[in-house]
Amino acid sequence: MHRRRVPVTEKLGRVHTSAVSVAILPQADENKAKALTKALKVVCAKLFEMERIGSGDRSERIRTYNFPQGRVTDHRVGITYHSIDDVMHAENLEVFIDALLLQEEMDAIATFSSSQ
What we know:
alpha+beta
């Protein structure tokens, strides 16, 4: 058998190779525990990444730009602005900014009130 570089995923066990198959055999129970811990960390990281990225579902949309009708809707605060050209040229954005700040303040008041 020739020695080759062992991939990181196979370092926790010994590698048995033959002309027909490859088997990775754990050396002891402590290696199983380490492998399980590492696997759980990887799964948690993947779940966190999926949650952070989102599913791309329509319910997760933040803003809709409707060019044929010339309007922009911010779904977080429920405001529709009927001049898409202004928004695309970064003009009159205070409509959205003010609404988002007001929503943030209302959420903070609601959180404070519910904790009392």
